[in-house]
Every structure is written in C-alpha cells, then in structure tokens.
Amino acid sequence: xxxxxxxxxxxxxxADDPMFLGAKALQKRYRLETNCYKNHVRSAAGYFHMxxxxxxxxxxxxxxxxxxxxxxxSALTWTRNLLEEIGLDIEYDVPxxxxxxxxxxxxxxxxDRTGQLSKLRQAIHDAYELTAQYLEALQPSTVVVLQCATNxxxxxxxxxxxxxxxxxxxxxxxxxxxxxxxxxxxxxxMQREVRLVLGFHPSxxxxxxxxxxxxxxxxxxxxxxxxxxxxxxxxxxxxxxxN
Length: 243
Prior knowledge:
The protein is of the alpha/beta class. The chain has one domain: Uracil-DNA Glycosylase, subunit E (3-Layer(aba) Sandwich). It contains 9 helices and 7 strands, in the order βααββαβααβααββαα. The protein has helices at 21-29, 34-44, 75-86, 105-113, 117-138, 167-171, 176-180, 203-206, 211-237; strands spanning 12-13, 46-47, 52-55, 96-98, 142-145, 184-189, 192-198. A hairpin with a 2-residue loop joins β6 and β7 (192-198). The model is unreliable at 239-243 (pLDDT under 50).
C-alpha cells in the first residue's frame, strides 16, 4: 500500500545528508575502512518515506570502491538489477540498509578469532542502533525484510548477530517459510506502525544448485519486490510498468 500523498513531494536523501553523521562516527570509532562508510551511505540514500529494503551483509567487498561492490553473485547486485527492471535506481530512489551497517562478516570473524568478542558485540549493538536511527528518520510505512540472520529461530541465523539483543535485530527479520508464503505483518517500532513485507536474502537464489528451486526462489522474490515497488516506479517515471 502506497502512502496517500504524491511521491513527487518527497525529499530525496543524498549521501551527504546529516543523517549519516552517526555512520561516520561509527566508522571512526571502530577504525573501519573509509570505503565501508562511503559504500554504506550511497546504498542507504533514496527518498524519505520510500519503502526501505533491509539486508544482512548485502555485499562482500566493503573496502572496495562503490562500483566494485556489485559483484556478479552479490545480493546487492541482484537487488539493483531487479529494481532497475522495475524502473527504480538503487542509489538514488530506494534506501537499502544493512541490518548491521559497515560490520562485514570478514571483520566480525577477525574480531572473533582474535579474542575481541566483547568489542565485536558492542560494535554490532552500535550498528543496530544506527539502523534504528535511520528508520526513525526515514519514516517508511513499509520495510521489505530480506534477511533472517538475526532471527534466533532461523536455521540460517548468524551465530553472533542473532545473539546481540536489540529491537532492530528482533523485529526486522524474516524466515524462508514466511517469505515463500509471501507474508506481511504490522509491527510497532519507535511509536510508529510499520508494515513488514517478508522476503529472504537473494543469496539463497545464487547459492541454490537445483534449477527448478532456483527459478522458484527468483520468481517469489521478484513478486514480493514488484508488488511493493512497481506503484512507486510508476509515479517516479510517469509511465506504467511493463512486464
């Protein structure tokens, strides 16, 4: 369901918006690569009130330049390609958030291996808090959840991410069962009601070896995202979406 007012009146969030000052502070606090910050804010930019996509670790090369994070099998590449088919730009139209921004799996594993689990948990908590601040500022009526890593009941849960208690991690997570049934639900977060559209991480498509299952996963996720974003693309582009 779209917001009742026209998208043409919405403000567009750029990578230089003051909202990202918290991200810069987190990057400096944990001495993360500068490109971790730059890539994060460019993918998180878009329209205020636009439905937000939440992933977990949507790309591997956090320290690379922005154009180089779109590797052939990354979740971000799959998401970008589908949004482009719909008629939307991943960098300028749709905010795409990492549930745990700038904390890559590689960085987390390094901290774990070197006995810095306490610091890692604090960094994850701080990153979750940053995501909460974004959602409060962006005020989306709909959030498309494409991750189950923070779902403690999921067989695909992330051992560390799912163990750090924070409302963002507990509320904005999905499961394959819910996604395949194309479920949605209303939650209350920071004094606002938000509709969660439940999907799954696009890596489930790229890692699937059975061709029939791969096609089913791709069609399901395509249907989920199209149902949410096609009406917005029609408003932005002023033309009907062509299948």
